């Protein structure tokens, strides 16, 4: 074997360092901008937008940890979001917590959501992908129904949060930074998973679950783990969101558009990549907020939202990040033809894009 | 108690026939195209609104109006398929189609809200309110008419599937699209037409739903789709007989449970779904290996 | 690092079709055993039962003396039994290296911080890629490979955890002769190092030239087993491929009917080229009944 044959595997580390440096510095710049944002734009509206966006960045990345990596589309993520909300809401109400003490409940939001994910996962993860999506939708409706009908959830009128005695001008800031922390942590976890053996197993499941099983992968455990992690983070996001909004009703806690938004952001940015969903949320959430303000008619903005979704699905099916990554790679290849064929290795931590060519043998005939 | 159960059962069976109509469309679409049309719920509502417009603004009889709404919805179905579903390609096709249908549903719901507003409306006709007495309790005429309509239409679909050339092509495509194509079946056309048929039945289903539900609004789509999804999965994705049986059974069950608790009656769907899927992950009638994913 | 694979009385039915019935066979440790039979004889079903993808209705499977009937696919692999598929299955969206790293034995728990491929494992995996001649593509996505390359990758992946026994489902199917020779050579190499093989194939040259013993399946039952020459001459085997009815036909019928009895003794079927001894001339005389084609 020629030296070049052995090099490709070994070369991955040193060859990437140039790109890694670029990517890392890019990320640091973005992080710095995010930290400075509330100081640069102290307008409460801006920080509200920022907070909302960060919550969705966290939620979309969490959704991606399960749905993106494993390929099982969960359209019931609102279940965990809403559970987190109600956990905190009910806790604050029943334990009569006031003021800053309510924040102590926040971890509980994640824990309860994760706990709920276990029985749901045990049922839902045993079925095939089509059915899985539908079951998650069913779960969503069940939870929404429960929220409407149970007394302890406050029924249709919902629950109101205790008031926080904070200064008006900087009221949003702790929420903003809390959300920023959550978003950053989620992306970090997503990255860790992606490069770990656990993440590899998830992605193998995504490509061919039966084959993965035949190679020793404990599919059920792996899926469950990702599902629970995803639920935990989403629950946390819900709890935090509740504090900010300070009131909850069944419809707002369990909102079908929430699930759809996560999926849209994930697909738009790039399903199964680390930064894709975050990017999707970063672009789409402010866009959606802006649309809602521009068109005060809710219904029109809903139509536009759906239309946007269709546009993304039809024209950007693999998402922004992988498509951009491929374009860059192709551009690079065209300009550096002398070197050995470079596999599409984009800057760390974003992983290689999904294969655009070579459809599976039984693909192709699509009605 | 007996006073309440019998009418509930009868209501359930009659109502189940109506749901069967919508569920058959849904399962047919899955069988041929391998996608779950989650817009079916809102499409039923669209059908209901169409009937509403024809009946209230143009004073056309509900059943006569079907002659207009059914073809119209058929065209809508074909359009949706051609513009949204068919262009989708690639390994994520199944997921994308589902999301695309979801997006279509969102758009349709928004459009309905925009045009009609959030208020609850209902379909009325002289025979909607009136009822007749059987064995000590009342049955509304409209329930019976709609049930008969459902029976006729499901039978028509059955005949189409099993007694016509087109139906043969559809069944061939359901079983093996590659092989179907090899024997000269234009599977794209089959798919488009099947989608059209699947949506066309929602016109009838919509009218029936609108007439028997006591009131609907653009919001009604969610309840509908959640019931339909449960029915179709319980009956086995792709199985027409299964959709039929599951519809009648589940709606009857809901009706009976509704005697005790109207609010929670709908939970029987979810509970049954979860139960069945825990024990037998491919539904009751469904093919054991639903298309490799 | 080898083991015996044995089945006893396996039965498996799908609806009305009895795919396997009284299926009893032994794959001796350290051997290369061929599994042949006409289409529909149950070969792939047998593989599925052995590797935990299907549960048998009756009968037992033993690996190295240990009962593994009904164990799940992941457990079976962990115990040292790997397989490939008739329609080559790989993970198209993972790189070749990652494909190899998916395979995992018990004890390799997928921790969050555990990177795939620790040092020793990494070298081993690279070694396998070199062994199959795919090393230069290690960083590429598996979906970009050609058909033949995928077959090699699938084989390499199965070998990643050093299984004691490997089941190959039509490894030579749809592959050019050079690659077939390459495959046969690799299998022989691995076998010398101790791996046991059970190979389903329709390519008779491949089977008869490579295998120490051959098992013949017909209608889900073993009808013959033994060294290749013996099996090839066995009239029951030829019946299985040609159909017993032909024996009853009058002598004026197709000359094919003549060959099995008279010809076999003089020209045992495997006399035709063996993969490694055939320096490029044609495949020689017709190697006999070959139902050919795909599909079980």
Short summary of the structure?
The complex is a heterotrimer of chains A (367), B (293) and C (296). Chain B is mostly helical.
Provide keyphrases for this structure:
heterotrimer; A: 367 residues; mainly alpha; 13 helices; 1% strand; disordered N terminus; disordered C terminus; B: 293 residues; 12 helices; 2 strands
Report on this structure.
The complex is a heterotrimer of chains A (367), B (293) and C (296). Chain A is mainly alpha-helical and 367 residues long. Chain A has helices at residues 3-40, 44-70, 78-94, 106-124, 129-149, 172-195, 197-214, 219-245, 250-253, 256-269, 276-294, 298-315, 320-335, and strands at residues 159-160, 247-248. Chain A starts with a helix and ends in a 32-residue tail after the last helix. The longest helix of chain B is centred in the first third of the chain and has 32 residues, at 2-33. Mean pLDDT of chain B is 83; it is low at 284-293. Chain C is built from 10 helices and 10 strands. Chains in contact: A-B, A-C. At the A-B interface, α5, α10 and α12 of A face α1, α4, α8, α9 and α10 of B.
Write down the overall geometry of chain C. globular
**What is the rounded Rg of chain A?**
22 Å
In order across it, which strands form the biggest sheet of chain C? 6-7-8-3-9-10
Give the helices and strands of chain A as they follow along the chain: HHHHHEHHHEHHHHH
The unreliable regions of chain A are 1-15, 342-367
Please give the structural blueprint.
The complex is a heterotrimer of chains A (367), B (293) and C (296).
Chain A: H1 3-40, H2 44-70, H3 78-94, H4 106-124, H5 129-149, E1 159-160, H6 172-195, H7 197-214, H8 219-245, E2 247-248, H9 250-253, H10 256-269, H11 276-294, H12 298-315, H13 320-335
Antiparallel strand pairs in A: 1-2
Helix pairs in contact in A: 2-6, 2-8, 2-10, 2-11, 3-4, 3-8, 4-8, 6-7, 6-8, 7-8, 10-11
Chain B: H1 2-33, H2 40-57, H3 62-85, H4 93-116, H5 126-129, E1 131-134, E2 137-140, H6 141-163, H7 165-175, H8 177-182, H9 187-212, H10 221-235, H11 240-260, H12 267-279
Antiparallel strand pairs in B: 1-2
Helix pairs in contact in B: 1-6, 1-9, 1-10, 1-11, 2-3, 2-4, 2-9, 2-10, 3-9, 6-7, 6-9, 7-9, 10-11, 10-12
Chain C: E1 5-14, E2 17-27, E3 32-36, H1 43-50, E4 58-63, E5 66-67, H2 73-78, E6 81-83, H3 96-102, H4 119-131, H5 147-159, E7 165-169, H6 177-192, E8 196-200, H7 204-210, E9 213-218, E10 221-226, H8 228-233, H9 235-242, H10 259-266
Parallel strand pairs in C: 3-8, 3-9, 6-7, 7-8
Antiparallel strand pairs in C: 1-2, 1-4, 4-5, 9-10
């Amino acid at each position: 074997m020629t030296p070049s044959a052995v090099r490709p595997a070994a070369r991955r580390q040193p060859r990437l360092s140039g790109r890694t440096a670029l990517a890392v510095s890019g990320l640091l710049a973005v992080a710095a901008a995010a930290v400075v944002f509330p100081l640069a734009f102290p307008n409460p509206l801006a920080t509200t937008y920022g907070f909302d966006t960060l919550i969705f960045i966290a939620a979309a990345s969490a959704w991606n940890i399960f749905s993106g990596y494993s390929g099982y589309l969960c359209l019931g993520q609102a279940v965990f979001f809403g559970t987190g909300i109600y956990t905190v809401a009910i806790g604050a109400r029943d334990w009569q917590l006031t003021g800053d003490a309510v924040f102590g409940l926040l971890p509980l939001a994640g824990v309860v959501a994760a706990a709920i994910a276990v029985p749901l996962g045990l049922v839902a993860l045993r079925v095939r992908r089509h059915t899985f999506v539908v079951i998650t939708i069913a779960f969503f409706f069940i939870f929404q129904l429960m929220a409407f009908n149970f007394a302890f959830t406050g029924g249709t009128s919902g629950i109101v949060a205790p008031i926080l005695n904070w200064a008006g001008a900087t009221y949003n800031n702790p929420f903003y930074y809390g959300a920023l922390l959550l978003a950053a942590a989620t992306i970090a976890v997503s990255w860790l998973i992606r490069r770990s053996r656990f993440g590899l197993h998830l992605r193998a499941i995504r490509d061919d679950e039966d084959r993965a099983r035949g190679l020793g992968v404990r599919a059920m455990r792996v899926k469950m783990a990702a599902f629970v992690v995803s639920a935990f983070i989403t629950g946390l996001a819900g709890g935090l969101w509740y504090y900010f909004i300070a009131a909850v009703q069944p419809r707002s806690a369990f909102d079908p558009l929430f699930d759809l938004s996560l999926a849209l952001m994930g697909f738009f940015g790039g399903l199964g990549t680390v930064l894709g969903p975050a990017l999707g949320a970063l672009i789409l959430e402010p866009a959606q907020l802006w649309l809602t303000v521009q068109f005060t008619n809710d219904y029109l903005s809903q139509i536009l939202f759906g239309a946007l979704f269709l546009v993304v699905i039809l024209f950007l099916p693999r998402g922004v990040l992988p498509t951009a990554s491929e374009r860059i790679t192709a551009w690079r290849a065209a300009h550096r033809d002398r070197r050995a064929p470079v596999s599409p290795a984009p800057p760390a931590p974003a992983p290689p894009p999904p294969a655009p060519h070579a459809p599976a043998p039984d693909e192709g005939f699509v009605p | 108690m007996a006073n309440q159960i019998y009418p509930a059962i009868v209501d359930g069976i009659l109502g189940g026939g109506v749901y069967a109509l919508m569920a058959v469309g849904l399962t047919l679409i899955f069988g041929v195209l391998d996608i779950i049309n989650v817009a079916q719920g809102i499409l039923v509502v669209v059908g209901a609104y169409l009937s509403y417009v024809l009946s209230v603004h143009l004073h056309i009889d509900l059943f006569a109006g079907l002659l207009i709404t059914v073809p119209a919805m058929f065209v809508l179905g074909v359009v949706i398929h051609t513009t949204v579903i068919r262009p989708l390609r690639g390994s994520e096709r199944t997921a994308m189609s589902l999301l695309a249908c979801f997006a279509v549903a969102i758009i349709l719901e928004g459009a309905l809200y925009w045009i009609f507003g959030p208020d609850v409306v209902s379909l009325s006709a002289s025979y909607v309110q009136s009822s007749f007495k059987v064995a000590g309790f009342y049955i509304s005429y409209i329930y019976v008419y709609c049930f008969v309509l459902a029976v006729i239409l499901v039978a028509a679909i059955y005949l189409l599937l099993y007694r016509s050339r087109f139906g043969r092509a559809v069944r061939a495509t359901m079983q093996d699209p590659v092989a179907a194509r090899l024997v000269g079946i234009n599977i794209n056309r089959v798919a488009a037409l099947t989608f059209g048929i699947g949506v066309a039945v929602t016109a009838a289903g919509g009218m029936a739903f609108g007439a028997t539900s006591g009131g609907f609004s653009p919001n009604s789509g969610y309840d509908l789709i959640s019931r339909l999804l449960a029915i179709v999965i319980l009956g086995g994705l792709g199985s027409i007989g299964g959709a039929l049986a599951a519809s009648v059974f589940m709606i009857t069950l809901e009706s009976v449970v509704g005697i005790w608790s109207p609010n929670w009656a709908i939970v029987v769907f979810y509970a049954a779904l979860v139960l069945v899927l825990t024990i037998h992950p491919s539904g009751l009638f469904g093919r054991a290996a639903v298309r490799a994913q | 690092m080898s083991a015996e694979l044995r089945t006893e009385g396996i039965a498996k039915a799908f609806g009305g079709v009895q795919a396997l019935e009284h299926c009893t066979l032994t794959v001796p440790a350290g051997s290369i055993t061929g599994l042949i039979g006409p289409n529909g004889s149950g070969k792939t079903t047998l593989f599925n039962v052995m590797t935990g993808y299907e549960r048998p209705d009756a009968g037992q499977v033993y690996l190295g003396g240990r009962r593994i009937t009904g164990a799940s696919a992941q457990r079976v692999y962990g115990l040292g039994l790997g397989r490939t598929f008739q329609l080559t299955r790989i993970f198209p969206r993972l790189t070749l290296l990652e494909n190899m790293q998916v395979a995992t034995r018990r004890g390799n728990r997928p921790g969050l911080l555990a990177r795939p491929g620790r040092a020793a494992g990494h070298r081993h995996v690279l070694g396998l890629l070199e062994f199959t001649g795919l090393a230069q593509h290690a960083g590429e996505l598996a979906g970009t490979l050609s058909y033949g390359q995928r077959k090699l990758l699938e084989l390499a992946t199965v070998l990643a955890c050093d299984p004691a026994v490997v089941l190959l489902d039509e490894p030579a199917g749809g592959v050019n002769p050079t690659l077939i020779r390459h495959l046969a050579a690799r299998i022989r190499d691995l076998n010398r190092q101790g791996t046991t093989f059970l190979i389903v194939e329709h390519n008779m040259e491949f089977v008869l030239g490579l295998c120490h013993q051959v098992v013949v399946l017909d209608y889900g039952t073993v009808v013959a087993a033994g060294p290749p020459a013996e099996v090839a001459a066995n009239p029951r085997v030829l019946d299985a491929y040609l159909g017993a009815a032909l024996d009853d036909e009058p002598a004026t019928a197709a000359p094919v009917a003549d060959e099995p009895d008279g010809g076999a003794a003089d020209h045992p079927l495997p006399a035709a080229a063996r993969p490694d001894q055939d320096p490029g001339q044609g495949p020689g005389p017709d190697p006999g009944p070959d139902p050919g084609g795909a599909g079980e």
